[in-house]
Amino acid sequence: MSYEPTQRNTLAQRQLSLAVMIGGLLAILIVAGGIAIRVKSEHQLKDWTEAQAIPTVNVVAPMRDVKGGSLDLPGRLEAFASAPIHARVSGYLKSWRVDIGSQVKAGDTLAEIETPELDQQLNQAKADLVSAQADAALAKTTAKRWQDLLDTDSVSRQEVDERTQGYATRQARVVAAQANVDRLVATKNFARIVAPFDGVITSRDTDVGALINAGSGSGPQLFSVSSVDKLRVYVHVPQEYAPVIKTGGTAEFTVPEYPGKTFTAKVAALADSIDAASGTTLVQLLVDNSDHLLRPGAFVNLHFALPVRDGALRVPASALIFDRQGLRLATIDSRDTVHFKSVEIVQDLGNAVEIGSGLTVSDRVIDTPPDGLIDGDRVQVAGTGTKAEKHD
Hints:
The chain is an alpha+beta fold. It folds into three domains: 57-67 and 310-387, conserved putative lor/sdh protein from methanococcus maripaludis s2 fold (Beta Barrel); 83-194, Helix Hairpins, CATH 1.10.287.470; 228-305, Efflux pump adaptor protein, beta barrel domain (Elongation Factor Tu (Ef-tu), domain 3, Beta Barrel), CATH 2.40.30.170. Helices cover 31% and strands 34% of the residues. It is built from three helices and 21 strands. Strands 1, 15, 16, 17, 20 and 21 form a six-stranded mixed sheet that branches. A six-stranded antiparallel barrel has the order 2-9-12-11-10-13. Helix 2 (116-151) runs antiparallel to helix 3. The mean pLDDT is 84.
């Protein structure tokens, strides 16, 4: 009978159907799992994209300063007194006694000039004086004799007056001759060139045998003398800061040749006017230089301590936004929402600024705000509570 083979075929068909069903279920599970993973990934990507669309910012807190800032300006050292020495007489340089760097006292001889022509003029003037004195003596004797003759009525009053007038004229010639001698003697004294005050020789522009021409300030100078025990410091202060610079105040300064060393100068005078071209006022300070460390003409960096401004708040300069709407700061509220505030700068400190109005101490200010930020945007805060950088 064929019953047993038929039964075996039916069992095989059932097993095959069961395998197909299991395979189909597995395929469905695999497809469903893939779809679920893809959907989850899409949701994660969407969440990440939305999170990245919200900008991340750094926040700083405005800071009140317990002391004012510093006004840094370039300045120039000048000698307290400086004089170019010119010749007052012509001749040839006979000798010089000092060179650059020599310390001199007022009245010290710097050089001597040979003046042969002036010497001859002085000799002639002295001879003219002697001649005038002799003429005056003779005129005096003559006038006296004619006065005696007038008493005897031997001569007329007119003749006596003429003789008396002649004596007076010769006396005047004596005075003129004496004045000419005194003038030449005074001029001869200029043949010895002397220091006008205590100081140091800063230049020597002549030598023995050089032809010396008498001149004024426009002519060639022989020496230059400077008083350097005390120096002047000149600096141009911007108009904005001129009111805070007061006579008697002090400023510190540094010079390149002494790194790390600080000097103190005292404000001596202010120009009390604004230069229209530069918008600055000239300030003069004095500095003691008894140790002669500083030199006239040197460049200095001056530092004026500025007073604290009432109500001013300091923020980094990088937080400022300047566009067509003016000068603004971007702040965020408790919900991390952006709000722009128009502000006014009262002092620029370089890497920081002091805000005079438009900002409160409780505001949170965005440092280096990203481009495209508008009022009402949401942001993520990367850092908070950071103080505005202090300017030294």
